[in-house]
Write the structure tokens for this entry.
Amino acid sequence: MNQNSETEPAAAQQKVAIKIFGVGNAGISMMQRLVEGGLEGVEFLAVNTDAASLLGSSASQKIHLESKPLRGMGTGGDPERGQVAAEEAAAKLKEACAGAGVVFILAGLGGGAGTGISAVLARVAREAGAVVLGFVTTPFDCEGRRRQNVAQEGLEALREAADGVICLPNQKVFKLIDENTSVISTFKLIGDLLADGARGVWRLLAHPGLMDVHFGDFCALMRDRHMESCFATTEAIGPTRSREAMDKLLAHPMLDGGQMLAESDAVLVSLIGGPDLTMAEVNRVMGEIQGRCDGAHVMMGAAIDERYCERLAITVIVARKGEVSVQNEQRARTNPEELQTQLLSRTSTGKPKSRLIPPAPELSPDKVEQLLSRQRNGGTRGRKNAAKMRQAQLPLEIISKGRFDKSEPTIHMGEDLDVPTYLRRGISLN
Amino acid sequence: MFDPSSIIVGLEIGTSKVCAVVGELNAENALNIVGLGQARSRGVRKGEIADAPMAEEDVRHAIVEAEQMADVEIRSVYLGVTGGHLRGFNNRGVHPVVSADREISEEDVQDVIKNAKTINLPAQNHVIHAIRQHFLVDGQDGITNPVGMLGARVEVDVHVVHGNLNRLQNAIRTVKGLQLEVDDIVFNGLASSLALLTNEQKELGSLVIDVGGGTTEYVVYANGIIKHTGVLAVGGDHVSNDLAYGLKVPLSRAEHLKIEHSSALVDESVKGQTLAITNELGLPLKEINLENLRRIMSLRLDEIFQLIAHDLEQAGALDYLRAGVFLCGGGARIAGIAKLAEQVLQMPVTIGKTSSMSGLKSALDQPEFATAIGLVKFGSFQQRKRTAKGSLSQGIKSTFGQLFKR
């Protein structure tokens, strides 16, 4: 058995054994951050083709993938070489995965090692009986088209192989940094973000929870292939921590100012607080989140950690039904009937994901055709463009008071009566 | 020509219009409306003057029109005031009866009223009205005239309406700038209620709501006395503004839409109906949803009534209203507003009629002239009081005084 089961046998049996793999240079440096952050009961493994970066890592187990064609020079940015090297060492990797219940793969896509190895590693880990979660980054737009394409392919491959992939496009980090942020601290930030996500998931699985997230639930959430997910972690200290943490969460760039929550399909919330965590706080946070993501399947877990006295950390993983992946789409294009039957069978037999969502309405065949064609059109241009096109918006709505702009406001019991009543009552006009 | 003292003019400087009404007290002391002048108001926001020169011009227009119609020269007016700064509350004065036989004399009554009117208010506040309610003798409630009764202690309740002195002065200065005297300032809500309510209605208990352009005033009468007054600085202007914002049309267009398609209720028949807006050439500009228009209006009016209902509930005045609710002001013209008010306030609502006076029929029928007519009525009460009270010598003195004043 692995190392952590020897140090904490009880926890390992009760919970699940978790192994975290850092793959490639970027993956290893991200993992390093997790190691420094301290996750007990987790085994860290570093996998790379480049011996130098392995040397700098403090992982408990280091796997150096060496093969002849590489000549000790790394993959040179070619994911195929990385893949070949990984395939050669498949047995070694499988051995490393043995006994793990959950395997996290941290990697930076777009390069040779991370892109090539992670998909193979994911496949091997699944073969070894583990649930595989990928935490990956995709390159900045400025890194060039080729790297982007490589990363996209790698992501697809990883999605195919792993149970779930949480992908952080580096480009999104631009929302978090300002003009003066150095390159080093930007990459550090990306590492931190991803590490935060991984930590949040780990917390869900490994911490003695007051309200457990069942492992099965979690896998069910992650297993659906056509999902894209994002995550956010926030922390706040002090008596107003629940409100603060929630505000931060909604302002989190990864959630697009709460927009992701609204579009979500399933949401997993993990709260961690000190022994002073009150039920009212849990209720407030969950109420807020549930209010935001109408109709989504919301799962929650709350855990108590002595060290989190007066602190509250919220981690949310938001999954939504994204566009069908490129391959699926091609399949759909060549054989629309097949997808149609899938679609129809799903609407008729699949049980609703939660009590909150009514079953999908019956669709007539031509309606289905229409919807499919719409989705196809939207899908080909891809999400990248859509993200680029969207204009940034401040999260506040400026309500003009029209002719009362300059007169003394009529405040009655804390309400500004000059603002139209329908706005204050939140009634939407059609 | 008329005797100048028998001419009474009520001037209301409203948010949407300035209105002057001329009344005449005839030999039998009965009031007769003889003239009416009005002008569109441009310098007023939420019942208070925001642009003094503009307001002055509008007042001049209204006064000139009224003078021409009544064929009199207007020298003094009873000025109606309103605004969000006005407050009403009830105050109680106490006076011990000191005479040996414990009989309450006229002096005791004067003293207790004086006590009740000494109110501790911030220096910048001015008391507009201190209206006597009922007397209490040794804690016994509901006495209208305690003179001649026996008791150790006499108390009286007064309803006080006060406001910010500087803001009241703004309106007064505007009028004085036109070489007009201000006989008295009167709370608009009080004036409206005087115009609308008969004595029986005051006795039974009624609520008058004056939905004006910039403000909404309300007055509660119960057992013949004023129980409660209030002002909301929300009115028809807000409806227009909401429409302009919600339908994304200019304010002037919103004003038109409000008047043409006014309805306080959203009924099923307008669901899905649209309305084409055309420019001056008759070409369609855009389409708006009639249901949205109605909904925006309805919500705003509903809120106004709810705020009033809430205030009355807190003041404990809702249970006295056996005669129901009377609406006036321009807002009373909105179709279905009585029904909406009925739904919110849960009591019979009617549009008020200024029926207790003779004179110009066209002026009396309109709900928006209730305030100005009420001001004249208030003036006539004052005038009668003055003539009744003043002895002959005082009368001469005041007559000369008025002559010198010119």
